[in-house]
Amino acid sequence: MTDTTVTSRTVDGVEYPAVGTYAIDTSHTRLGFAVRHMAVSKVRGDFKEFAGTLELAENPVDSKISVTIQAGSVDTHDENRDNHLRTNDFFDAENHPTWTFTSTAIRPVTSTEWNVDGDLTIRGVTRQVTLDATLEGVVKDPYGFHRVGFSAKTTIEREDFGVSFNGVMEAGGVVVGKKVDIDLEIEATYQA
Fold first, then answer.
1. Cα–Cα distance between 98 and 103 in angstroms, integer?
2. How far apart are CA 137 and CA 104, in angstroms?
3. Residue 83 CB partners (closer than 8 Å, separation 6+)
4. What pTM does this model have?
5. Which domains does the chain show, CATH number per domain?
6. Mean pLDDT, residues 107-118 taken together
7. The Cα angle at residue 72 between residues 183 and 104, in degrees rounded to 5
8. From CA 58, how far away is CA 89, in angstroms rounded?
């Protein structure tokens, strides 16, 4: 169902989405990551199953974000590696099937950029992380839906979340890097 009465708004010359609740559009959103592999390249992947909402407030710093990710939906384009990631060596998806992110504070950087602090829970361990978020655009699509796009990124230390498995290479160095780069492209649709 579309709501043609919803309109975006302009704040200090920048088009902002209408105030309200937006559902993350999973078919147009990517929750991606990259981690160093054997000290020579990066393995990239993403998660295929997730849900979330953006509660966008009149003042952007009062907005709220919550996301739930199905840990077992990891996809690195290698079935054997994905199956290993699901085990207790890494994600322990059997015992910790969901990961969550819940915002706790939003701090402005520019009129289209914010630092979004939040609690990230992986494997039952919660740590505060800060996402560098950017408003990418606001649009009413051809079907009458109001959409907003954000990008965000951060880097986490996987060992902080209990993901400490690794192998040492014969020539020195480790198989999997400790830092994980998170890269998000989020599109969300106005609900109410």
1. 17
2. 23
3. none
4. 0.90
5. 9-190 (2.40.128.110)
6. 97
7. 50
8. 44
